[in-house]
Specification:
By secondary structure, the protein is of the alpha+beta class. The chain has two domains: 2-81, no CATH class; 111-262, Aminopeptidase (3-Layer(aba) Sandwich), CATH 3.40.630. 26% of the residues lie in helices and 32% in strands. Strand 8 (184-188) and strand 9 (191-201) form a beta hairpin. Helix 3 crosses helix 4. The chain starts with a strand and ends with a strand. The model has no long low-confidence stretch (mean pLDDT 92).
Amino acid sequence: MIVKMSNSFPFDIEGINIKDENIDLVVEGYTKENELIGAIVKYRNFYHPYCDEIYVYIVEKYRKLGFGSKLVNLISEKCLYPLKCSTFSNKKDSTGFLEKNGFIKKRSCWEYRVSKRSFIGNNTKNLKVQRFCELNEESKIRILEFVVLTYFENHVTISGANKDISIDDWIKVLTKDISDEDSFVYMENGKLFFMLNYLDSETEISVAYVGSNMEKASTVECLNEAINTLFNKYEYMVLEIDDVDETAMILKTLFDKKQEYSYDTYIKK
């Protein structure tokens, strides 16, 4: 295999969506006849820079011949941080390749659309949530700082948040498209809960971030009230559930909805 290295992606492959300015290195493999065998693209994630993220592509007829493993080993030698790669759980060739090459699954993520018909929560209102827009400025700052710290905690085992970005700037990044009217919080005696959402359409709302420092029962009560309120206004809700996020996993249990596959993140040992 003839190896070439560059910092740009020299060919088009369906499904690749990496901006040229984010690419650090491309390792390409060719036959002696200069026919492409495959390539690995290493690219940067500005917000989570402590893993070297890669995309692996091997031409179908050259798969399962060991070329992909050779390219992984070559690019590993050029990396300062652990390699990170993501794929769908139902792509068994991809997951098998990653596991064979020493990658360990660190996170599973499910994304799906739900309606009130699949909601199996209840209408208990022992804890009263507030709309984010109803908070005073001091309370907003307190909640938003908690949002950022929760986000940091949920990502530390995958790829930590960029330490060069200030808390204030992280708040701007995470809340850029958030609807103050359709987001909910609970604050009482140091107990905090948030459910930040953004508008997709007149009939659909997406859950962006959830978090809580309360026991599960209280978290469930807050989620129940927020969800019931949202379904009084919207027909559908879009959930993105990460299994490293404890509150999100509680949210997942409130819907009778099965997702056949997940989007999984792998880190090389």
